[in-house]
Amino acid sequence: MSENLSVLTKARQAYQPKLPVSLKNGALSVKINKGAATESVSDQAKIKELFPNTYGLPVVQFEAAEAKAGKALRMGVVLSGGQAPGGHNVIAGIYDGIKSVSKDSVLFGFLGGPSGLENGKYIEIDDAKMDAYRNAGGFDMIQSGRTKLETEEQFNKCIAVANKLDLDAIVIIGGDDSNTNAAVLGEYFQSKGVKTCVCGCPKTIDGDLKNEFIETSFGFDTAVKTYSELIGNIMRDANSAQKYWHFIKLMGRSASHIALEAALQTHPNICLISEEVKAKQMKLKDVIKQVADVVYARAAQGKNFGVALIPEGLLEFIPDVGVLISELSEALAHHEAEVEGLDTAAKVEKLCAWVSAESAEVLKSLPAGIQAQLMLERDSHGNVQVSLIETEKLIIEMVKKELKNRGDFKGKFSALNHFFGYEGRCAAPSNFDADYCYSLGFAASVLALNGMNGYMSSVRNVTKGIENWVAGGLPITMMMNIERRHGADKPVIRKALVELDGPMSAPFKYFAARRDEWAKTESYTYPGPIQYWGPSEVCDITNFTIKLERGAMK
C-alpha cells in the first residue's frame, strides 16, 4: 500500500462491500430463474426487427443454490461515458465474481472507453491492481471515453480483439446510450456466431436510467450527497451573512433528478424543475417572473438572501428558448460566413432576420453575454452548444432586470453564481453506492458465466436492507424505443425524466407540497459530508428519491 495514500483511502480500501443473499456464496452457487418473454417499451416491431437474436428475452432473477462446476472465465470490462462514483466497485464485483468461479479466471480492462475495445488497448487486472482501487472514486484505473461503436468496421475490430483474447464476455458500464451500444454490439456478435456475450451495467449520476427493475443508476446517490453537502454549506453561509442570493446550477442536462434530490436533501428557497417548466409551457419570461416573485416576497420580509437550484438543461425545456436554439442552429448552419468576425450586437441584428419574430424577441431579451454564448462555435452536429450557456448567470441578470422594471422593489438583490458538476462525478462512493456497485458487478459475472448476451445486471429492493436485495438481469431491448437522432431513426434506451404525475411522481409531489413554505422560510437542512462508519441509519441510508419512489418514505 503506497505511503502517499490518505488515512481515509487506506481505510476505505479495507471496506468489504455487502452482497445480496443470492450472490454470497459465489457465482457458481446461483440458480437462474427466468420470467416471461419481454417486449420493448414501444416500437415493438421495429426493435424486434433490429434485434432478431436478443429481442424478447426473459427477465431473470438469481437465487442461492448448490454450487455447480465451472471453468475459468476470460472477461473484458469497459467504462463508457461520464464518470460516476462506484465504477471501480463494479469492476471489483466482476473481478471477485469470476475469481469465485476459478482462480485462473482473467479480467481485462479496456483503456479509455469503447475505443480501447475497438483498438485492442487493454491491461490485465490482477490482485494488486484491483486492491488499489476498491471503494475508490473515479474511473482512473482504466479511464473512460465517449466513442460510439456504430459501424460494421468498428464491430469487426471488436470481434478481432474478443477473439484474440478468447473472451467469454464483455461488460460495458455506462448510461442509456452506452448500454444501447452494448445491446447493438451483442446482437452483432451473436449474428456472426461469436461466442463472446456482451452485458451492460446501469451508470449515470443524472439518474435518468431507471425503470421498474432498475431502481436507480449507480453514482447518483453519491454525487447528489456530495452536491448537497456543498449546497448545505452555502445555505449556512447565506443564513449567516444574510446579504446574498446564491444561484446554483446542477449537472443533469436531460433530466432534473439531481436538482430535485438536492432540493429534498437541503430545502432551498427556489428549485426549478425542467420537466414542470415544459409541461406548463412556461416561457422564459414566466420562469424569470416566478423566481423574481420569490425574491420580491422575501425582500418584503427584510430577507435579501436565499438559495436557488437550477438544472443544467433548463433552457432546452423552456419552449420559446428551445425554438430559438433550434432556429439559431439552422440559421448559423446556412449563414455562418455572413456573421463571422462580427461583434455580438451585429450578429444578433443579422440573426434576428433569419429566425421567427418570436425567437428574435427572445434573443433580444437576453443579456449580451448569453447572446454571445448562443453564437459560439457549434458542436460536431452543427448544433448550438447549450451546455456552454451559463444558465444561472442568465437568470440572475434577467431577475435583476425584472425587479428593476417593477419599480416598487425596495430590497437589495446581490447574487452569486455557482456550478456543481465535476465535483461529484469522481467522489468516493457512499456505502450505498459501494455495496450497490459491487453487487451489480458480481451479478454481471453471473450473467457472463451463463452466456446471457444482451442483458444488463440488475439489483432491486434496495430500500429494504441488503438481506432483501434481489439480483438478476434484464434484457436491454425491453427498455428501448425508437428516437430521431441526427436525421435517422435509432434504437435507444428511453430516458427516465422526473415524473410530475404517475407511479414514480412521489418525489416531485413531496417537493411541490413543501416548496412554498421553503420559499418563505429558512428551512435549510445541512446534510454534511458522506459518512462511512457508524450507525447504519447514518452510513447506509439511501437517497430521498428512491425511498419516495419505492414507498419507503411518506
UniProtKB/TrEMBL annotation:
Catalytic reactions on record: beta-D-fructose 6-phosphate + diphosphate = beta-D-fructose 1,6-bisphosphate + phosphate + H(+)
EC number: 2.7.1.90
Residue(s) at site: Important for catalytic activity and substrate specificity: 177
Keywords: Cytoplasm, Glycolysis, Kinase, Magnesium, Metal-binding, Transferase
Binding site for Mg(2+): 176
Protein species of origin: Fibrobacter succinogenes (strain ATCC 19169 / S85)
Name of the protein in its database record: Pyrophosphate--fructose 6-phosphate 1-phosphotransferase
Gene encoding the protein: pfp
Subcellular location: Cytoplasm
Site feature: Important for catalytic activity: 203
Superkingdom of the source species: Bacteria
Active site: 206 (proton acceptor)
Cited SUPFAM superfamilies: Phosphofructokinase
Family membership: Belongs to the phosphofructokinase type A (PFKA) family. PPi-dependent PFK group II subfamily. Clade 'Long' sub-subfamily.
CC cofactor: Mg(2+)
Family matches, as Pfam families: PFK
Regulation of protein activity: Non-allosteric.
Phosphofructokinase domain ranges (all copies): 74-336
